[in-house]
Write a structure and sequence with these properties.
There is one protein chain. The chain is α+β, with helices and mostly antiparallel strands. The chain folds into three domains: about 10-75 and about 130-205 and about 310-380, 3-Layer(bba) Sandwich (FAD/NAD(P)-binding domain), CATH 3.50.50.60; about 80-125 and about 215-305 and about 395-415, D-Amino Acid Oxidase, subunit A, domain 2 (D-Amino Acid Oxidase, Chain A, domain 2, 2-Layer Sandwich); about 430-565, 3-Layer(aba) Sandwich (Glutaredoxin), CATH 3.40.30. The chain contains 16 helices and 26 strands. It is globular. The two termini are about 35 Å apart. Mean pLDDT is about 90; it is low at about 210-215.
Length: about 575
C-alpha cells in the first residue's frame, strides 16, 4: 500500500489515528487531547448520526464527561430538565398503567447529588439523553480542540504497521484523491462491523443474537414523531420510557425531546419483512390503542440478545475499542458506557507511550484490564435481557373484569422486580482491575455485585468519591482535585498532625526522574481518611487506584515502575 503513494507530508502525521467518529471514538480523541496528545479522527459519514440509539449515560460516563468539563452541557441536551425520567408500563398507552418506576426529573436528581452527604458515590448521577444528541455535541466540541483533526466523510481503506508506527490510506467516501497518513498508533472505534478488527483477523466470541423473547434476536428501531402523545393522550402520565405489554402488541417507546420525537423498539414476527412506514405506524397505533398521527423519520434493524467480546483487543500498534470489541444486548444501557470507560483506560496509556514514560507492558495491560470487564458487562446485559424475555403477559390482561384486574395486578407485581435493571451502580462503578500487572495488590477487594457498589480503596478499583470541604469553605468533588496524570493523595483526618512530607517527596522525586506526570494533593477529611484506609493513595489518570500505603516503600520508584508497566 505505502509503495503506491508519496510519503505522508508533515501535516498528515499524528501520534494517534482513530477510525470511527461515534461517541467512543470522539471520547478517545478528547481524552487524548486532555493528555496533550494530537489525533486525527476518520469517519465514513460526513456528520454525526441522525438516528437515535441508546439513551443511558451512566454515572461513570457522566464522571468522564466531568473530567472533560462538559457534564453540565451534556445535561442540557435532549429532555427538558423537568420532564419525568420515569419508566412506565401499560397494557396500551390509552389503557391501564401496570407499573411505574419513579426516577424523578433531571433537576431533582442533580440537586440531590449536589446536596448529598460526604460519601455520596454519585456526584454525577445517571442521565437519560439520547446518544444522537450527545454525539452531535461531542463532534462540535471536538471541532474546537486544536489537537483534534476531524476527517468526516473519509474512509480508511487500508493500513500497514511496522515497528515504529502505522501507515494508513484514507479516501473520500464520495470519491476523490486518497491521502496517506503516518501515525504512531491506530485505534479502531468503528463499530460492530469494524473494518479495523476484520483486517486484523480478530473474531468475536460469545452468544450472538439469541432469541430471548422480546428484546432478543431480530429487532427494529424507528425514529418517529407522535404529536398528540405528550399532552392529549398521556397528560400527567408522562415518562421517559413507555413499555406496552398487551398480547401481540409489545412495544417500547422512548421519549427523545420531551415533545413529539420518540424512538420505537419493536420485534417483527417470524418471517416478517423489514418494516416500512405503514407497518411502523400500524404497530404504534396498536400499542397506543387508538388512531394517532405518526410521522416516520427513519428506521433501522439491529440484533438483540448478543453478548460478544473480541478474542483479543489489539495487534501490534493497532488497538480496538467500543463496539469493535464488545457487542451488547440493550438492556441496562451498558454498551456505549462500557466503550467510553474503555476509551478512558486506553487513552492515558497511549499518551504515556507517545510521551515516552510508558513501560513496555503498559499498553498490553489495556486488554488485561478491559477484556474481563467486557465479559462481565456483556454477561450482565444478557442476563437482564433474558429476565425481560422470560416475562409472560396474561391473555386476559386487558379484560375489563375481575379476571383482568387480577391479571394486571399480578403482572404489575412481576414488573416491580425489574426496577434495578435501570440503575445498577455495581455494574456502573464497580469495574475493578484485580490481577492487573500494573496494579499493586493490597487487601481483599469487595465482592462483585452487579446491583450494589461497595466503595473500597483496595487497588484496582475506581477511587471512591468523597465531597471535600476546603479551607475556603467550598465543597468540591474529590474528582475535581485530581490531576491529568497520576495523583498522589496525602490523606489525613482533620485533627491529625505531622507525617506528611518525606514519603510523598520520595514518590514525587521518583516520578520526576522517570518523566511520569504526578501531582500531590493534600486532603483533610475524616470521611476520606476512614474510607481510603491509608495515608497515601496513588491514583491513575483514569481515576483507578494503582497503589496505597501509609508510608512510601524504601524503593519508591518500584511503585511507579509497576504502575506504568516497567516491571
Amino acid at each position: 500500500m505505502a509503495d503506491a503513494f508519496d510519503a505522508p507530508s508533515q501535516d498528515r502525521q499524528r501520534p494517534v489515528a482513530i477510525v470511527g467518529g461515534g461517541p467512543v471514538g470522539l471520547m478517545l480523541a478528547l481524552f487524548l487531547d486532555r493528555h496533550g496528545v494530537a489525533s486525527v479522527v476518520f469517519n465514513l459519514e460526513k456528520d454525526s448520526r441522525w438516528h437515535p440509539k441508546g439513551s443511558t449515560h451512566n454515572t461513570r460516563t457522566m464522571e468522564h464527561y466531568r473530567r472533560l468539563g462538559v457534564s453540565e452541557a451534556v445535561r442540557g441536551l435532549g429532555l427538558p430538565v423537568d420532564h419525568p425520567r420515569d419508566i412506565a408500563y401499560f397494557t396500551r398507552l390509552a389503557g391501564w398503567e401496570l407499573a411505574r418506576f419513579g426516577m424523578g426529573t433531571e433537576r431533582e436528581r442533580s440537586r440531590a447529588a449536589h446536596e448529598g452527604g460526604e460519601l455520596d458515590q454519585q456526584p454525577e448521577p445517571l442521565l437519560r439523553v439520547n446518544q444522537m444528541y450527545v454525539e452531535r455535541f461531542l463532534l462540535a466540541h471536538a471541532g474546537t480542540r486544536s489537537n483534534i483533526t476531524l476527517r468526516y466523510g473519509w474512509r480508511v481503506s487500508g493500513f500497514e504497521q511496522d515497528t515504529t508506527g502505522v501507515t494508513l490510506l484514507a479516501e473520500p467516501a464520495d470519491g476523490g484523491t486518497g491521502e496517506l497518513w503516518r501515525v504512531a498508533y491506530l485505534a479502531g472505534c468503528d463499530g460492530g462491523a469494524s473494518f479495523v478488527r476484520r483486517t486484523l483477523g480478530i473474531a468475536y466470541e460469545g452468544p450472538g443474537g439469541a432469541h430471548d423473547g422480546f428484546l432478543g434476536g431480530r429487532m427494529f428501531s424507528s425514529y418517529v414523531r407522535i404529536p398528540a402523545l405528550h399532552g392529549e393522550l398521556l397528560g400527567d402520565r408522562k415518562a421517559w420510557m413507555y413499555n406496552v405489554m398487551a398480547p401481540g402488541a409489545r412495544m417500547l417507546l422512548v421519549s427523545l425531546d420531551g415533545g413529539d420525537e420518540f424512538l420505537l423498539m419493536s420485534k417483527p414476527a417470524l418471517g416478517e419483512a423489514e418494516p416500512n412506514d405503514a407497518t411502523v405506524i400500524r404497530r404504534i397505533q396498536e400499542g397506543v390503542g387508538c388512531a394517532v398521527d405518526v410521522e416516520v423519520l427513519a428506521h433501522a434493524p439491529w440484533q438483540g440478545g448478543v453478548a460478544l467480546v473480541a478474542e483479543r483487543f489489539s495487534t501490534g500498534r493497532v488497538y480496538l475499542a467500543g463496539d469493535a470489541i464488545h457487542l451488547f444486548s440493550p438492556t441496562g444501557g451498558l454498551g456505549m458506557n462500557t466503550g467510553i470507560d474503555g476509551a478512558a483506560n486506553l487513552a492515558w496509556k497511549l499518551a504515556a507511550a507517545v510521551q515516552g514514560w510508558a513501560g513496555d507492558s503498559l499498553l498490553a495491560s489495556y486488554e488485561a484490564e478491559r477484556r474481563p470487564i467486557a465479559q462481565r458487562n456483556t454477561a450482565a446485559a444478557r442476563f437482564l435481557t433474558q429476565r425481560v424475555g422470560e416475562l409472560r403477559v396474561p391473555a386476559q390482561v386487558e379484560a375489563d373484569d375481575a379476571a383482568g384486574e387480577a391479571a394486571r395486578r399480578e403482572l404489575g407485581e412481576q414488573l416491580a422486580g425489574f426496577r434495578r435493571q435501570f440503575e445498577a451502580p455495581g455494574v456502573e462503578l464497580g469495574a475493578r482491575y484485580d490481577g492487573s500487572p500494573i496494579v499493586w495488590p493490597d487487601g481483599v477487594p469487595p465482592e462483585d455485585d452487579l446491583l450494589a457498589y461497595r466503595p473500597s480503596s483496595v487497588p484496582g478499583g475506581r477511587l471512591p468519591h468523597v465531597w471535600v470541604t476546603g479551607a475556603d469553605g467550598v465543597r468540591r468533588s474529590m474528582f475535581d482535585l485530581l490531576g491529568t496524570g497520576f495523583t498522589l493523595l496525602r490523606v489525613r483526618a482533620c485533627d491529625a498532625t505531622g507525617g506528611r512530607d518525606d514519603d510523598a517527596t520520595r514518590l514525587a522525586d521518583a516520578a520526576r526522574a522517570r518523566g511520569i506526570p504526578l501531582a500531590i494533593v493534600d486532603v483533610e477529611s475524616d470521611a476520606a481518611r476512614a474510607l481510603y484506609a491509608r495515608r497515601l493513595v496513588l491514583v491513575r489518570p483514569d481515576q483507578h487506584i494503582a497503589w496505597r500505603g501509609d508510608t512510601a516503600p524504601r524503593h519508591a520508584g518500584a511503585v511507579l515502575d509497576r504502575a506504568v508497566g516497567r516491571i
